[in-house]
User: Which sequence fits this backbone?
């Protein structure tokens, strides 16, 4: 489903160059639940942005669902993002002036889904994440864990087969973190491929496969119940 071949990403700021990723080779199959670990600055977010088609590599090829991402134009890319990828971020990225319900319906509005349908789907997803009692609230009236549930519901609206989460529990206490992980597990069991970045080993333990990054390189690729390769 996700195939990265020899992916390198160099950031250029004037004369300064940072190689954030160097020659990454990686395949993630449909239905996997993968955790990405590594110290700060090791390239985890850069990798997530490339997988999510938010950024393009400097060299190498990325094939997503049989499509070579480099060959797509802006329009095609945004379609791919919309249909195939759901994003969850550490800082939630909710719209503060909008209600919980509006935050969740927004991507469907952009996609031109009929009003009745998006309302119904948003309510269904908010119920799924346990927030049916908070649909009229604003994000500021919610706890961190609840905000992240809204973000997860929003990420699921388009029925994307891949859910990317960059340190989704980074701003949460340990109880909320584990509740959020239980939710990711449920979503995974329903068939969504999940790639999640975390610093915390006990969060990564929820995944079936752990990728360890260091200094822009993939250092270790461990599947649950197998020896590291
Ligand atoms: N937009 C950018 N411009 C320049 N350098 C960047 C940019 N984004 C990230 N970097 C650099 O790339 C490296 C990897 O960053 P990042 O992928 O954010 O790491 P992580 O998510 O593992 O903390 C770091 O050295 C960081 O400073
Ligand atoms: Mg990061």
Assistant:
């Amino acid at each position: 489903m996700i195939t990265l071949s020899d992916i390198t990403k160099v950031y250029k700021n004037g004369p300064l160059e940072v190689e954030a990723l160097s020659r990454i080779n990686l395949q993630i199959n449909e239905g996997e639940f993968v955790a990405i670990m590594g110290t700060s600055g090791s390239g985890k977010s850069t990798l997530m942005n490339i997988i999510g088609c938010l950024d393009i590599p400097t060299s190498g090829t990325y094939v997503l669902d049989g499509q070579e991402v480099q060959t797509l134009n802006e329009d095609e890319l945004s379609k791919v993002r919309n249909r195939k990828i759901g994003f969850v971020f550490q800082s939630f990225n909710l719209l503060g002036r909008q209600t919980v319900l509006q935050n969740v319906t927004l991507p469907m509005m952009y996609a031109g889904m009929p009003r009745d349908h998006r309302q119904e789907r948003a309510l269904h997803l908010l119920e799924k994440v346990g927030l049916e009692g908070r649909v009229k609230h604003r994000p500021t009236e919610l706890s961190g864990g609840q905000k992240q549930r809204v973000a997860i519901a929003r990420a699921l609206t388009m029925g994307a087969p891949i859910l990317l989460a960059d340190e989704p529990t980074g701003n949460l206490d340990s109880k909320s973190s584990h509740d959020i992980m239980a939710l990711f597990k449920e979503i995974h069991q329903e068939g969504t491929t999940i790639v999640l970045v975390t610093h915390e080993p006990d969060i990564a333990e929820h995944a079936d496969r752990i990728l360890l990054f260091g200094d822009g390189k993939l250092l270790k690729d461990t599947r649950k119940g197998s020896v590291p390769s």
Remarks:
- The domain at 2-93+161-223 is CATH 3.40.50.300 (Rossmann fold).
